[in-house]
Q: What sequence folds into this?
């Protein structure tokens, strides 16, 4: 079972091998592939009634006698593969992130992860992928991303999501199998409301280092005397908010 994310908001356009083959004139395919029997052999291929995007014929053992794959060298494999489950955990108050992402200067990455990170950054339209575990009753605090849309899929648990924009606040519940979407610059939070952890797979539409601003960061980044004017409270009262840990 795969969960797939694609970097497009358009209708996804896909061309499968069998579709390309049957869309090619017989004589052209014969001249390109040069099979024994020529065009007559090409004519023995019959287009299946159903889409063959995922193909598992009932007579697979009869059709395939030997299926082997030779492992490619690491410098190629790790451009396209990342062991997310086995990667470093990044805890935060209330949960844990694991990331398949680009990091500037390869900070905190091992050698194979650096290959993957650099591969992401070479492509203009790509994805950063992560798993997010929010402990029971934990909170992923309000934040927004400067440089990416975010999409997520709920693997287990249940939660509450809030989307906070100027003049608009939307709150809704999420459970297993639900998809959530936050456009770039949209402030949002995710809260676990079950006895079990809330576990999601998240995708971000960027090949650059993800830029995120959290509520506690921008609140403490604003001078106390400015906050006093905004909220009509004495300046000293804002010292009651603990500074976020680095």
A:
């Amino acid at each position: 079972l795969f969960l797939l994310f694609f970097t497009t908001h358009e209708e996804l356009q896909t061309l499968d091998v069998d579709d390309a083959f049957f869309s090619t004139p017989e004589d052209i395919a014969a001249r390109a592939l040069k099979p024994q029997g020529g065009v007559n052999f090409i004519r023995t291929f019959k287009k299946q009634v159903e889409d063959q995007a995922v193909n598992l014929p009932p007579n697979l053992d009869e059709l395939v006698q030997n299926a082997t794959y030779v492992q490619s060298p690491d410098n190629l494999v790790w451009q396209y593969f990342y062991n997310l489950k086995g990667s470093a955990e990044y805890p935060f108050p209330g949960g844990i992130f694991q990331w398949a992402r680009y990091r500037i200067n390869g900070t905190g990455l091992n050698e194979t992860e650096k290959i993957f990170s650099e591969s992401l950054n070479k492509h203009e339209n790509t994805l950063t992928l992560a798993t997010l575990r929010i402990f029971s009753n934990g909170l992923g605090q309000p934040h927004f991303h400067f440089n990416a849309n975010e999409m997520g899929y709920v693997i287990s648990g249940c939660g509450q999501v809030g989307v906070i924009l100027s003049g608009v606040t939307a709150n809704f519940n999420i459970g297993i199998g639900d998809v959530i979407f936050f456009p770039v610059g949209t402030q949002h939070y995710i809260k676990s409301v079950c006895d079990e952890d809330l576990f999601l797979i998240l995708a971000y539409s960027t090949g650059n280092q993800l830029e995120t601003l959290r509520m506690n960061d921008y609140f403490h980044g604003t001078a106390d005397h400015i906050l006093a004017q905004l909220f009509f409270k004495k300046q000293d009262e804002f010292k009651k908010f603990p500074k976020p840990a680095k």
About this structure: Helices lie at 17-22, 26-33, 38-42, 60-63, 74-80, 111-121, 215-220, 224-231. Residues 111-121 form the longest helix (11 residues).
